[in-house]
Amino acid sequence: HAGLVPEKFHSLIADSIVQFARNSLVHGIENAEDRAAQGKPERAVISLESALQEGQITVSFRDDGRGLDIERIRSKAVERGLLPAGEEADSGRVLRTIFEPGFTTLVAAEMDGGRGVGLDLVKSQVQAAGGRIQVSFSPGKFTRFVIFLPSAGT
Fold it and tell me: Where would I find the H helices in 24-147?
């Protein structure tokens, strides 16, 4: 899509891909033994796709790892005061907490990365550029982040 992606988005897209890859590798992808035990191929698959359609650029990053653990995210969000204890929050509200500054499901000894670390920066940059992020997942199967940005013609 050369020429249709504004140069101002190049760094944003590259930084986002790096952050999504880091999260997948640190937190999402299981080790070979765990993958085999789940009937998955030992090698994980990470895919990156882009498209230009209906006046917007989409960049999709998907891994075939363990997906997101909503209950673990909920627990960490309550622990950090992002969600009230004892209040039932829908999965969409829980999922939005991974975009809060510094949010992670990893323990302090593992603080190199984790679902949420740095995602707040990706989200704020995408929003500042007039875009949005969509997250989808299936426990034990995949996590997918899609960035939607306005194309050069909009």
Answer: 32-37, 70-79, 91-96, 119-128
DSSP character at residue 28: I
Beta-carbon-side half-sphere exposure of residue 82 (alpha carbons within 13 Å): 19
For the chain, the maximum distance between any two Cα atoms, rounded to a whole number of angstroms, is 51
**pLDDT score for 5:** 66
Token representation of residue 62: 């998907």
SS3 142: strand
Give the count of beta carbons closer than 10 Å to the beta carbon of residue 140.
13
Q: What tens digit of pLDDT does each residue of 108-148 get?
A: 534 444 444 488 889 999 999 999 999 999 999 999 999 99
**Strand, coil or helix: what is 138?**
strand
CB contact at 8 A, 46 and 144: no
